[in-house]
Amino acid sequence: MATVSVYNIEGKEVGTIDLNDSVFGVEVNDHLVHKAVVSQLANNRQGTQKAKTRSEVSGGGRKPWRQKGTGHARQGSTRAPQWTGGGVVFAPVPRDYSVKMNKKEKRAALKSALSSRVEEKKFIVIDEINFDEIKTKKFQSVLDNLKINKALVVLEDDNKNAEFSARNIPDVKTAHTNTINVYDILKYNTVIATKAVVAAIEEVYA
Q1: For the chain, which domains are there?
Q2: What is the pLDDT of residues 83-99, one digit of tens each?
Q3: Is the four-CA dihedral 72, 75, 77, 81 of positive or negative sign?
Q4: Assuming Cys at both sites, which of 65, 97, 127, 142 could form a disulfide with 45, CB separation 3.0 to 4.6 Å?
């Protein structure tokens, strides 16, 4: 069972916490982690790109000139691709880019991502982050105390003051227990979580 230090918002170590090996100590499955990232990025694509082919462009119903005898190359329509205002040859059409993963794969990938952060000592636990007001400077001071700049901060669902305080800090993203994902865990240098969040994650994914 992995043991990590617990810090307060001043950056001082105030204790330790044992992490559940079934969530934070699993063998990292690189294939599933890669699949989860590909799936998330693909699922974010709208797939709404569209252009008209020659059959969809308006006009061009008649032959612009007769087949022979004009000196011009033969043409069947002014909406053929080589004409200005003509259709696109292999026009893109709306499509679904989504990549499916089943629930077990998603859970395993998330556990692998969290375990990799614990292995690399890039998973930091804070006893609590409670602010009496929304203040970006206060949240920045917490990061400065922990000597962290680019971080994913996982907070309790009702911790709005801390969440809103972090909104304007570059390279910092907040998430909740039910919104953490593999891509964000890997994208940010460090994952910061409160003790309450760690307990909630273990309860959901153990």
Answers
A1: 3-45+97-205 (3.40.1370.10), 47-96 (no CATH)
A2: 999 999 999 999 999 99
A3: negative
A4: 97
